[in-house]
Amino acid sequence: MNIRLKFILPLLFINLIGCSTQEVKKPEVANNIITETPTNPESSKPSVQMTGANPPMTITKGNKKLNLMRILDGGMCKNDYQGAKGTFLLYADANDIERIKKQKGSAIFKTFESKIQEISGSILQTAIDNTNLAEDPFSLGADDAQQKLATQLMNNFNDAATVPVTKFQKETTLTIDITAFQPSLVFFQKGCDETKLEGDSKDIAG
User: Fold this and answer.
1) Start-to-end Cα distance in the chain
2) Tens digits of residue pLDDT in 34-46
């Protein structure tokens, strides 16, 4: 039987043309996912598990600091019964953006947008495909089951992102990171309707 996949994740990028190295603005996102700037916004590694109400505004990847550039909501049905939705985060190096703008002009970022849309869709699809969304008979309750599913999907998402993100960086010289925000993840196990997975995106800086 063919599994019907529905990819509903909205445009996953920022308007890089207008972005600079200016300080990242305080985000205001629907559903109160982010309400204030975190007190400790930096993380030592990209794509790490994040807990609490707020994702970090910056992360460190190698020797570069990446700014949170876009927050978006979306999801995917794995089949007619199972799926997941949540908030996804795009980080990018503002210094790389400025350098590329000077070297190649602003128009190049339109191409980058298309590439990131394509790879983000592929990452989410792979993560959903590799996540066992069936109900766990050994879970200790709803919270335990949610935590296990969220951890599994996060790990699969980050694993799936490694190769395409690395390839994108080599091709464009723009350092980025794409990750899911674990506390936002919601799972469907008894019916997945793609119309309920549609979401909005929000620029953080630009």
Assistant:
1) 45
2) 222 233 333 334 4
